[in-house]
Amino acid sequence: MQKNIIHPTAIVAHDVELGENNRIGPYSIIGGMGCKVSIGSNNYFGAYNLIGSPAEFATGCPVEAMLDFEQWSAANPSQVSGVKIGDYNVMRDRVSIDAGIKQVTTIANRCYLHSNCLVNHDCQLSEGVVLAPGVISAGTCSFGKYSQIGVNAVLHQGRKVGAFTMVGMNATVTRDVPDFALSYGSPSRTMGVNRIRLARLGISKDDIDATNDFLNGLNQTCPESVLLLLK
What we know:
Blueprint: E1 5-6, E2 11-12, E3 17-18, E4 23-24, E5 29-30, E6 36-39, E7 44-45, E8 50-53, H1 69-75, E9 82-85, E10 90-91, E11 96-98, E12 105-107, E13 112-113, E14 118-119, E15 124-125, E16 130-131, E17 136-137, E18 142-143, E19 148-149, E20 154-155, E21 160-161, E22 166-167, E23 172-173, E24 181-184, E25 189-193, H2 195-200, H3 205-215, H4 224-227
Parallel strand pairs: 1-4, 2-5, 3-6, 4-7, 5-8, 6-9, 7-10, 8-11, 9-12, 10-13, 11-14, 12-15, 13-16, 14-17, 15-18, 16-19, 17-20, 18-21, 19-22, 20-23, 22-24
Antiparallel strand pairs: 24-25
């Protein structure tokens, strides 16, 4: 069993479920205030991370309850959930992941969250998601596996980003992004297929072109070789 390495200035609440071989950097705060946090193994947390803080709705409690949020949340469990983080994830510096309300905010495995990212309440990140520096995701957004979000992109509440997508820098995502798509602009629009990602995965040019036509409504079906990536 490999020990966790926790910087002396970091604060990890007593009720946090922590696997092994995690590294937690200086001045990071994980858990506490009645929000359950579960962390797997082999994760890296940089400096000044804030994991498991209550969402805005959850803090809409009586003023006197704010004096002891942990006690209030125990009495109001339906308004407070938590955070679950899997294995082999990287959270760089100043990453904030808010606790869920209706469901646990989830970071799956092998995700990479660059500095200054905000993942709000109830968000769901599938395996291999990459958030570039400064990405802000409002609550209840979901990210398909191996999706990539560019620098300083902002996502409206409840948006769904499909698997193997690329969202460009500074995008304002106000509508869902389909699987395999390339999306950018403000507001963001689907501009075709994510050709580079599919090519790197060994998809033929013909099938990439066919997927592009599918996303543009010119084909009724997506190639089987591409759909297999979703399994």
